[in-house]
Amino acid sequence: MSRHARLVLIVAIGALFLTASLVSAQGTPQAKPRKINLNTATQAELETLKGIGPALAQKIIAARPFKAVAELKNVSGISQATYDEIKGLVTVHAAGAPPAKTPPDENKPAEPKPKTKTGSEAAGTTAGGLIDLNKADKPALETLPGVGAATADNIIAARPFKTVEDLKNVKGIGDAKFEKLKGLVTVGAPAAAAAPKPKGKAATGGASGEGEEDHPSKLKPGQIININKATLEELEALPGIGPVKAQAIIDGRPYKVIEDIMKVKGIKEKTFEKIKGFITV
User: Fold this and answer.
1) C-alpha to C-alpha distance for 124 and 115, rounded to whole angstroms
2) Cα 115–Cα 121–Cα 123 angle in degrees, nearest 5
3) What is the pLDDT of residues 171-192, one digit of tens each?
4) Location of each CATH 1.10.150.320 domain in the chain
5) Which of 50, 75, 238, 263 has its CA 20 to 30 A from that of 221?
């Protein structure tokens, strides 16, 4: 083989290796660099960013937490040029982490929470769920929208009501509030007023309430009174319970079991047997 032919062969082999090298380099995908998390990176990791030295790295750490990469521009010492260099190399949340939840709209009014009714409302609530303005106790009235403790007291003080419209005359109930309430309330017969107490020990049965034993029940069949929450008038509806014993029951609260009512002065086993089917705690 002539010298010229050998030279041509060497050049051809070199070209072949060069082509193979280029194809191999182009066909090998390069790993995508991992972004640095501004909220969790160490000072050393931050210093690997172009234009970030120890002082700026410390300022970045002091400015945490970042909600967006753009907040990096607020760090003293980071120019627009430096930001443009590193913005594609940093992040503010871990890879694959879901984006932060959108904060609730502070201008949107909170939805009112429905008020739950308690057992003490039974006496003032009709079968249809309406609140009886003449009979409902204070906790029952406070379940109405816009009715707090003071307004509930005003409603009770304004009894008896002849019509639902009379509610507009109560202090604290304007036309706007009445429009919200009128579909939730009703007016029944006023609760029976307690009979005037005759003067003298003999007439009242004494301080212990003697003479109340023959007092008949005013409750409807199946009606139950919560002795921890009932009003004076509701307690007086129990058989054998008059004003004196009713007040004594209120003074003796709270009760853990209905049998505790026998600890009240003037209420013994005989009276308890009459009322135990009508009471609960």
Assistant:
1) 16
2) 155
3) 889 888 899 898 899 987 655 5
4) 36-91, 119-186, 205-280
5) 263
